[in-house]
């Protein structure tokens, strides 16, 4: 029997959360957007839920197990989407420990962690299957590995089934926390795009609107739990090719400013986030490309938007945003 109970999005207000919310809405599923109680997060929760009669809002403090339990009460499935500042990755396992305690107290039956390629470390094969060794050589990779291990170890305890779904880098309309966002914004505004190089190495990117339907399907697929699965992008493409296509849609020649590892180190002297990018720079030179054949065997064909269509949709969203922006924001 399929699981069709209420789904809670923990840390709902990001791009992936919006994609999953859209898929749940389309499927007519009851769901709950869970986020921080104040400021931008609160407004984003309200905007996400809109007038969906099957949706509701809950607020939480992910550092408090009692708060997690209260926010998760009545959920069948929790989807974990919590981000942390790029210079605070030690929070990932800490928050997961608290979350697992709260979910157990609330009697939640399923947990899906939407994860990253960081726990693999350097790719030893191309493409990378779920059987690839997890040998991270970076602090961020070790913290993500510890987070994953907590989730996988929790499977079968306290009535909870768990799943880790790993994604590559992502992009899409209004996805501002993507490395590619500057390309679409630059193309739309006619300004220079800031990029992290090298930009001629083939990479894999998943189109964010494609993620939601997969997660919604997995919430109803009991055989998916107790394991790790990949969702790959629509093949590989270089950053330069993305920029060329985006600027062409604007009728412009690409204007790019590319920062390599040396420049990141220099910028990191003044900017802590840039400093944190240095240790992950290996993913620019030696990207991890995922094999998601196991996912497709399990749930059937997976819709993957072509790069041509995805770049067009992301550019059109950036052009609309640029047209609505105040004139002084374009200076």
From TrEMBL:
InterPro entries reported in the protein's UniProt record: Epimerase_deHydtase, Lipid_A_modif_metabolic_enz, NAD(P)-bd_dom_sf
Sequence ranges assigned to domain NAD-dependent epimerase/dehydratase in this UniProt record? 9-212
Lineage, top-rank taxon, reads Bacteria
Q: Name one Pfam family in it.
A: Epimerase
Q: What is the recorded name of this protein? A: NAD-dependent epimerase/dehydratase family protein
Tell me the SUPFAM superfamilies matching this sequence: NAD(P)-binding Rossmann-fold domains (SSF51735)
